[in-house]
Amino acid sequence: MKRTAPLSAAMAVALAAGVVFTAGTASAHTGRDLYGTKTPYAPQGRPGHYEKAPKGFAPVFTENVARHGSRAMTSSEDGDAVLAALHKAQDRDALTDLGEELAPQVQSLLAAASKLGYGNLSARGADEHRQTALRMEQRLPGLFADIAARHEPIAVETSGVPRAVASADAFTGGLAAGDPALAGLIKAPVTDKDLLYFHKQPKNADYQAYLKNDPDLAAVLAGIEEDPRTTEAAHHVVGRLFQDEYAAALPDADQVAFARALYQLYSAAPDLAVEAPDVDLAPYLTRRDAQWFAYLDDAEEFYQKGPAFSGRTITYRMAGVLLDDLLAQASARASGTSPNGAVLRFTHAEEIEPLAALMGLPGSTEPAASGEPYTYGNNPWRGAEVSPMAANIQWDLFADSPSEGHPATYLVRMLYNEKETAFTASCKPVAKNSYFYELDELEHCLPHS
Question: Would you list the DSSP string of 153-175?
């Protein structure tokens, strides 16, 4: 086993600088049913408790697929709708004391998002990726020391969307902060939409048609939306913000639309904690109401991007291109046909969620049976765990030393949101309960093309 390099002073300083964000994201992550896929990132691994590689094996390559980090809302639509409803009620002196306090909060959140740029990476999102990069280096110090010593390239690929490009820049900036010798080895980001924005590409027109026209999808989501608890939660939200007589006169549909728009702002606010530090929307939605609207959002994600319907693969088979690339890059490194010491990819929830379902990652193994719609009670899928902001899947490649008549053996360890994660049950690890798998085994057992 190669000696591992000690934690550099630069890395130690950079890690310490991120403590405030780590503490905040950990707190947010405990609300697994509150923020859905907008949940800020919190690493799930246990530093110092990762399984050691088998004797004689050392890391020789690493690669990842990561969602962009926390960001601003993609538009002002929900905020505008909430403000319009509040202003209309205010003109009629129909707001409660709590309702009177909401508009300034929404205005501050919208102002922060507008200044940052709708949809753009926030300071929190950038730090999520910087800290993830530093922890990657801390886990694999020998690998990055070798990359620097051998001047091996670090390849970077993105969807081309600004928040993904900014995430890549933050991540690679974290790597360089941890070890300045890596800075000159990090290649300029390359855009690959077929790989990292596949849900929008022409070759997946069948998937796009599914989102727009599939009758089963439309029916199940309408049924979930029409659950009486949706109206009940909306009435509760509206009743706390508007005077009784005014609230009672609002059509149910308008109350639901208002409550769901407010929830979108509520779930987005933690991602803008730096840009809008004084915004706190928690008082305006009770935990129970937030959980219900989070469930409605998760149901959409589940059926549109996740395991979806039993017996159908339309939502996730397109992720095969990404799984193929993970295997191809690891194999190229093992065969000596690639000089890359690392390959880093930055994408979106629309890619992470299908990939998790295709690979059978924890929480993404159970589709919904016919006639049994997805609920929190019958399915473990949670947006906050499957694809929070900055969600990531990492493969580390290890090798032993070749000897006469025996070529090197290559092993792969997978981390999912930095937690050691087993591959699907069809793949056999090198030992019982181990997280290490022979690369040859993965090439045969994973559902790639």
Answer: -EEEEE-S-HHHHHHHHHHHHHH
Q: What interhelical angle do 252-268 and 97-116 show, nearest 10? A: 50
Triad 164, 166, 171: Cα angle to 5°: 95
- Phi, psi angles (nearest 5°) of residue 116: -70, -35
Nearby residues of 442 by Cβ (< 8 Å), 6 or more positions away: 327, 330, 412, 423, 427
């890619």: which residue's tokens?
Answer: 351
User: What's the CA gap between 307 and 337, in Å, rounded?
Assistant: 35
Reduce the DSSP state of residue 63 to 3 states and report it: strand
Calpha distance 309→372 (Å, rounded): 10
Residue type, 262: L
DSSP codes, 313-376:
-TTTGGGHHHHHHHHHHHHHHHHT----SEEEEEE-HHHHHHHHHHHT-TT-S-PBPTT----T
Identify the band that residue 7 occupies on the pLDDT scale cut at 50, 70 and 90. Answer: very low
Phi then psi for 393, rounded to 5 degrees?
A: -120, 125
Q: Which domains does the chain have, with CATH numbers?
A: 6-13+34-71+122-214+314-449 (3.40.50.1240), 73-118+216-289 (no CATH)
State the Cα angle at 242 between 240 and 246, rounded to 5°.
135
Higher pLDDT, 127 or 370: 127
pTM of the model: 0.93
Contact criterion met (CB below 8 Å) for 418 and 132:
yes
Nearest to 171 by CA among 414, 395, 412, 390: 390
Q: What is the pLDDT of residues 301-340, one digit of tens each?
A: 999 999 999 999 999 999 999 999 999 999 999 999 999 9
For residue 187, report the phi and psi dihedrals to the nearest 5 degrees. Answer: -80, 155
- Grouping H, G, I as helix, E, B as strand and the rest as coil, residue 64 is strand
In three-state secondary structure terms, 282 is: helix
Residue 127, exposed/middle/buried by CB under 10 A (0-12, 13-18, 19+)?
buried
Q: Which of 72, 74, 73, 69 is nearest to 25 (CA)?
A: 69
The secondary element (H helix, E strand) that includes residue 399 is strand 392-399
Report d(CA 301, CA 299) in Å as an integer: 5
- Entry field: residues in the chain: 449
Q: Are 69 and 390 in contact (CB under 8 A)?
A: yes
CB distance 98 to 284 below 8 Å: yes
